[in-house]
Structures are given as structure tokens and as C-alpha cells.
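Annotated sample (chain length 264).
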Amino acid sequence: MKNTYFKSAVLGVVLSGLAVATPTAFASDAVEPAFTASANVAIVSNYTFRGVTYTQGKPAVQGGFDLAHSSGAYLGVWGSNVSESPLNGAAGELDIYGGYANSVGAIGYDVGFLRFIFPGGQIAGTGEKYDTLELYASLSWEFLNIKYSRTLSDYFGFNDKSFGLGRGDSKGSHYVEANVAYEFMPGWTFVAHAGHQSVKNYGEFDFSDWRLGLTRDFEGGWQAGVAWVDTDADKALYTICNSGGGACKDTGAGKWVVHLKRAF
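Output written by the structure step:
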């Protein structure tokens, strides 16, 4: 259930169950089921992760499934196609995540893990996989969310074996972000995001990213949206050439992204 605007909204789940009426002669009592399930499917014009395109500017089909417990615990899976150019040999992306979300007064909180898996993907000539494990924690208030993510593994395969620079691994790389989702009229939401990625021991790959956009919700669980996404990532480091030769693309350059999504 990974949202293209920011991961916190992606990893958010429905924590309250559907009310089930128990008929009696005099009254109906609402009973909350222990578990609730939801799913989503989306088409995006360009799959970007933290502002960087993973499809070389091409469309992606994405979808996920979430299971939530009334206690606040949740578990989910999400997938997308990716390009083999920025993620050498990867057949796609599969994310597995879980955690616990609840609130104290007006403040919501969410803690959990996120495992990125790229089947078949590895840094060319090294055998190092892109698979990455992060822990995250976030706080929310009304339309504002702040989130911190930190890797327990290497950051997408960055280490001595893949770079040969003698700097060690990249465990402990982190990403901090602020997100806004403000519904200014029924069904219309203004979204904004700013984040900064720090790559431990490989600081030249650090970058900031930002997003501004609008979403429109429709009946039946449909949503459409458009956003401008950009980064300040070093062009020389983030320019990727298509596998087998051909055009090269600055994966961190500014781009428009549109999406159509349905939640079930």
C-alpha cells in the first residue's frame, strides 16, 4: 500500500474496523472485528522513490495488500515494476512492511519496519543486492506528518565490495521527511513533501527531494492525482544509461507524475 506521495501515507492503515450490527429486539450494538483487510492498485506515469525515478520516466503498475488488527498492529505487502537500468537485473520491487500505529490525544504515531526486495537485482559485477531493511518512526497531527527512517542493512548495496573505496558499509543511512496532506475542499487534497537522504560513508550520494501536488478522491475508492517531483541529487552520480546502450537519463531531475488509484 505504498503511496507515491510519501511513504507514511503508504504505510498508514485502516485501524478501525467496519461496524457490524447485532440485531436485538430493542437496540443494535456495534462490534468491531479483530482484523480488517484492504487492497489497492494503481497506474503511475513514472515511479519515483524519494524523488528518483525507478522506471526511467516510464509508467508503472503497482498494488498492495494490508492487514490490520484492532490493537493498531498491521502488516502489508506492495509491489511495482521497475527499470533494469537504475536497478540492474531487477525483475521488480516487492516491499514487505509491518508495525504499530495508534494515537495519544491529537498526536498519531507509527513505528515499524520496511523491507525492500528487488528479485534478481544486483550491482553489476559485484553480486551485491539492492535489498534493504529500514526501521521507521513517524508522528502525525491533523494534516502534518514527520517521519524518520534508518537502515539496518546496507543502503541499497552501498559497501566496499560494490564501490571498492575502503569506506566500509552504509548501515545507519537515514532519511528524514515532512509531509502535508491538506483537504481544502471535499475530495480535494493539497499534498507537499520535503525529505533528505543521508548515505553513511558515501556522502556524495546524499540528496534532498520535494514534491507538490493535488489529489482528487471519487466514489468507489478511486483517486487521481498529479504532482511535480524534483531533487538536488548530483547529476553525474544519478544519471543512468539504458541497459544495452542508448539514451541516458538524470534520474533525479524534475518530473511531472500523474496517477490513478483504486482502493478496495
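Annotation: Confidence is low (pLDDT under 50) at residues 3-27.
Annotation: The chain is about 5% helix and 55% strand.
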